[in-house]
Amino acid sequence: MSMNPMDQMNPTDLYLLLIGLVVAERLAELAIARRNTRWSLSRGAVEYGRGHYPAMVALHTALLLGCILEPLVADRPFLPVPGRIALALVLAAQTLRWWCIATLGARWNTRVLVVPGLPLVAAGPYRLLRHPNYVAVAVEGAALPMVHTAWVTAAGFTVLNLLLLAVRIRCEEDALAHAAPVYRSPVPAEGGAR
Q: What is the percentage of the chain residues whose pLDDT exceeds 70?
């Protein structure tokens, strides 16, 4: 007989524990973001995209609620193989997210804040991808519900997140273009090819 309490828990209990850990992680992110917001604003940061921020908060809250409610209300089964693959993707997404947070340091935020005069970050995952944090968000948003076959939540979040990311990425690109002139694409000479 195993003495490990985890061995005594059923898959649904373990899944709810996972969601609880993700909620705790989100609260930690918000605390970091609040601290970093103060840091950025004290250095003259300009905020972009305030209008879409409430929709982003609502979508991410709905994701977590859907992850909890759908398996319980729809009596979704835990399927071990897809569930473990989804869990591996969630863990990979979390690793990428925290790599982004560590790389950006005080500049990481849930809001679009640009501190004048700071160069663009081109280290860590930002040397590999233009928007690595959004890759993490997209992967986690699709995979987290699928740990316990909450496919309606996964599909709904994915579609709405794609729409929101189209707005968010456009906002960030605009903010970075205004903040860092060297980031702007060069205009080809008249008649020249790109």
A: 88
